[in-house]
Amino acid sequence: MTESIRKIRKVWKSEPTIEGAGVHLKRAFGNYQVPMFDPFLLLDDFHSDDPAHYLKGFPWHPHRGIETITYVLQGRVEHGDSMGNKGVIEPGDLQWMTAGSGIIHQEMPKGDSDNRLWGFQLWANLPASHKMMTPRYQGILASEIPEVTMNGIKVKVICGHAGGVEGPVRDVIADPEYLDVTVPEQAIFTHTIKRGYTALAYVIDGEAYFDGERNAFGHDVVGVNYFDLERRCECGPENLILFSDGDLVSVTTQSKPVRFLLISGKPIGEPVAWYGPIVMNSQEELQLAFEELEKGTFVKKGSEKRDTL
């Protein structure tokens, strides 16, 4: 059977928003797109060289029922939690935190010597069977993330497989794949993604065609200026691409290289009840979570305490 190339289902432009105690960031997708990105819930791009836009950070707050994945390109993120864990996520590092039954933590961004901060946070949902699992961390150093080079194309394999290499993040629930891909100019990148899995790309830098048909009218477009008729099918920085189903993703560059995150995962297909940093399956479960926060019983016994990034 001939393998099919995934077409673009929809393209967005990330939107400015403020979270935490005053962190300015760009939201690629979030609450309003549920369940379109199932099993993923949110993707934020925090990118600034103004300390006033990030130093107040994300003070103590709870999470339950999800996984938060923080990937830093520039600057660093200091973190700590209610179980005594603490550490720093440095450039190129990634932290995969499974909140499970509940954790209270804080994340405090810091700029580099030029005040630059750049990174991403992805939220992945957990199925009902794992909502109340024991919280855990997978802290991955930049040196532990393999980079595969194929015909000038570079792929950092954070989770999943590419070029015969497996990423260091393993034993995660939604069978996700998380790749950081750089494609030089005048090149084609293709990658197999399991049929039926949700697949998305977020452009970090440069531009490329993410649909072989290059048909600007073949998909929905939100917040993207496509009046340039010759270039309207090319996606550039801060563009989010959601793919339709198929076997392969194909990305083609012309006069510029492109760097993007390529993320995929197995849909959960369950009800989503979401309030702030807590995501469950019902309003009753949300209410219970906040009642436990008030009573001081939110963090369950048996939660792991260990030093992490």
UniProtKB/TrEMBL annotation:
Its cofactor is Fe cation. Gene3D superfamilies: Jelly Rolls. Keywords: Iron, Metal-binding. It holds the Pfam family Pirin. Fe cation binds at residues 61, 63, 105, 107. Binds 1 Fe cation per subunit. Residues 178-298 form the Pirin C-terminal domain. InterPro entries: Pirin (IPR012093), Pirin_C_dom (IPR008778), Pirin_N_dom (IPR003829), RmlC-like_jellyroll (IPR014710), RmlC_Cupin_sf (IPR011051). Residues 23-123 form the Pirin N-terminal domain. GO terms for molecular function: metal ion binding. Belongs to the pirin family. PANTHER family: PIRIN, PIRIN-RELATED. This is Pirin family protein.
